[in-house]
């Protein structure tokens, strides 16, 4: 199997950008990734777009908008992949397959979403469409409500997770202070996240505002290559595994997080590593309870034991396995289709020493876990430094 | 490169199915394809869904609905691909890459759309979102208006295409009489298609109702395999090429149909064949003017010469290269995301002698051309009989 390397990255700031179109976000990230890879569009063999949309953008057929970034891309195959909040990883994995299949040598992957121009109830409705529509009970749930159910079930089965969740929120906000691309760069203390106040109201009990990720505009991009070229900084994708579970929650036990756990276990096995080898992880913290469960998926702890990792400092910057150094979906922002690409792009920058103020020293292995829906589409990637 | 074979197919009738959900359509087609391939879900390594949606269905994250077809699919990667009216081929090509990449041995591809529950203006708006939204002038065009512009430009450059277009409509309606899966099985004479009447009004001048494809519900499925198993009827995919053009029409000359032409030329070159070797073709006749231009893309004639193929009978059943024996999008129906998969599924049935009343004698090569947008995402596939 051909090795896959990330050889360039692009990343707009995440935030609210009223004046910038979906196309402009795509073009900015794509051009930055091509420039970083030192490649003209003519050297790219295929492009893939990760984009959720679900009514948020007017652009119903956005794949070829990537061609607007560089005239050298004309006539190159363009494909949009949608897997809810994992659309970005879906595009990246399809791009990897094009290289492994021998159909492309270099692939440009862009993830994008534009959400803030819609009113919050509209965004909530668009996101809720990623739940199962065939069951009245599930179809009417918003995603905050879905993860509120998870938090309640966690409390019943293992004990109250709310303190751990507030610690996660505070940690990710603190991490985002060092990330100039993050949407929300404001130090929120544990107390601020743990208390229900006017500024931190209940959104879907027991979830507080600070337990929820942001509504964001933004794009991210990576250039993938089978063979890196001289002079490129590269990260090698050592393993990449996707596991998709049933869509209806009634058919499974959400709290088991079987999809993420299987994806990570498969990725570790394919990479020949264990959690003790991982230097950092970017995981899908669409809600703080999700990050808590991701600690289990990472193999850091057993069921219901995630709080310990926070108590012991393991997942903080400076800890044994820092999680979401970027600030995560929680504070970096969560432009849905961009998120998976962003996680890979920032991990690439981390592994190539280009992560600026969120850089850690000499990371050896990074893990990305990107999730679509409530543990439905699950992607786990293991990355390591490539050539310098 | 691993060879790719179609080893099973599924195909719901196309039509108006108020009582059947998107999920039910997916499940029906998926189960039929698995049964035809003689495979349980556990033998499938990945599933791909072709689906446009753009607001027509409530299901915002439909890939894992394929898992509802067979419990053996649980945990298998599920991915939705969207490339407007070529979403089905997009899914199929991504599935082929998974096999060529060595990530899957057998892949289930389903294409689906549910449209008839929406009012026609809503459907028109959803489809129009597949045009370029960044230019006021283009964003406001419906697809009938886009192809009306093509028909007008054709008249100016080459001469009036309306008679040829009426012949195409009548031909495809006649072909659909023999296809029990077709939505509209009614013999429409050339005169009926060529006259503007109460029953055949102008939709977007000069396009008449009979020049437009249908609004449809339906699903189609194929099982792809790198290595066929004993007892399976198979078609071999000899070449499969995708070419994507700029989205804005202002950046290109639509009438040149450069994307479809390049895709077909690349596919012929990869297959080592010429148009004289092709036994039948299923081409994207979203509007009759599109089929007329597809004759040029197929290499049957030079620019503006498509009418000749109709005068000489070449593209009729019994002619040298029958086009759209299924009835085409025009009469078989056009459930957007299902169309590309349907074209491949019915070509498979044709090449394996399972095409019923639309079967032709001993076909040696079939060509599929599926197009997303106005010649933006273009897929050309060459298929031949595999093992019997």
Structural summary, described in words:
The structure is a homodimer of 388-residue chains. With 388 residues, chain A is an alpha/beta fold. Helix content of chain A is 34%, strand content 18%. In chain A, the strands form 2 sheets. A 9-stranded mixed sheet of chain A has the order 3-2-4-7-1-8-11-10-9. In chain A, helix 2 (87-100) crosses helix 12 and helix 6 packs across helix 9. Strand 3 (78-82) of chain A pairs antiparallel with strand 3 of chain B.
Describe what is shown at a glance.
The structure is a homodimer of 388-residue chains. The first copy, chain A, is α/β, with parallel strands linked by helices and 388 residues long.
Salient structural properties:
homodimer, 388 residues, alpha/beta, nine-stranded mixed sheet, two-stranded antiparallel sheet, 11 strands, globular
Report the major sheet of chain A. Answer: 9 strands, mixed
Average pLDDT, all residues of chain A: 97
**Which of globular, elongated, flat, extended, rod-shaped describes the shape of chain A?**
globular
* Cα distance spanning the termini of chain A: 22 Å
Q: Round the Cα radius of gyration of chain A to an integer and report it.
A: 19 Å
Low-confidence stretches of chain A: none
Helix/strand/pairing category of chain A: alpha/beta
Q: What is the H/E string of chain A?
A: EHEEHEHHHHHEEEEHEHHHHEE
* Beta-strand segment tally of chain A: 11
Percent in helix of chain A? 25-40%
Number of helical elements of chain A: 12
Please identify the oligomeric state: homodimer
Task: Give the percentage of residues in beta strands of chain A.
Answer: 15-25%
Q: Looking across the biggest beta sheet of chain A, what order are the strands in?
A: 3-2-4-7-1-8-11-10-9
Biggest protein-protein contact in the assembly: A-B, 61 and 61 residues
């Amino acid at each position: 199997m051909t090795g896959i390397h990330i050889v360039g990255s692009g990343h707009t700031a995440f935030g609210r950008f009223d004046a910038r179109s979906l196309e402009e976000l795509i073009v900015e990230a794509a051009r930055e990734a091509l420039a970083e890879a030192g490649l003209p569009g003519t050297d790219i063999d295929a492009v893939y777009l990760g984009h959720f949309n679900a009514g948020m953008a007017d652009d119903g057929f956005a794949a070829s908008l990537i061609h607007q970034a560089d005239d050298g891309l004309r006539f190159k195959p363009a494909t949009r992949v949608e897997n809810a909040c994992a659309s970005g990883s879906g595009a990246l994995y399809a791009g990897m397959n094009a290289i492994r299949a021998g159909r492309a040598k270099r692939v440009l992957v862009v993830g994008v979403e534009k959400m803030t121009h819609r009113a919050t109830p509209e965004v909530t409705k668009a996101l809720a469409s990623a739940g199962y529509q065939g069951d009245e009970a599930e179809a009417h749930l918003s995603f905050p409500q879905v993860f509120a159910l998870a938090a309640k079930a966690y409390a019943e089965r293992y004990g109250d997770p709310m303190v751990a969740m507030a610690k996660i929120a505070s940690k990710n906000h603190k991490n985002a202070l060092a990330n100039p691309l993050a949407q929300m760069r404001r130090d929120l203390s544990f107390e601020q996240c743990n208390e229900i106040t006017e500024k931190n109201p209940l959104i879907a009990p027991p979830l507080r505002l600070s337990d929820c990720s942001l509504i964001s505009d933004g794009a991210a991009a990576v250039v993938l290559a089978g063979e890196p070229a001289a002079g490129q900084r590269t990260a090698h994708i050592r393993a990449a595994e996707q596991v998709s579970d049933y869509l209806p929650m009634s058919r499974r036990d959400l709290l088991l997080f079987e999809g993420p756990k299987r994806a990570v276990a498969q990725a570790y096995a394919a990479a020949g590593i264990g959690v003790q080898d991982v230097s950092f992880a970017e995981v899908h913290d669409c809600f703080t309870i999700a990050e808590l469960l991701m600690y289990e998926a990472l193999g850091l702890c057993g069921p219901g034991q995630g709080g310990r990792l926070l108590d012991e400092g393991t997942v903080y910057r400076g800890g044994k396995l820092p999680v979401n150094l970027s600030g995560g979906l929680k504070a970096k922002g969560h432009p849905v289709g961009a998120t998976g690409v962003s996680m890979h792009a920032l991990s690439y920058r981390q592994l190539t020493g280009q992560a600026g103020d969120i850089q850690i020293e000499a990371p050896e292995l990074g893990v990305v876990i990107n999730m679509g829906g409530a543990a439905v589409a699950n992607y786990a990637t293991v990355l390591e430094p490539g050539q310098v």
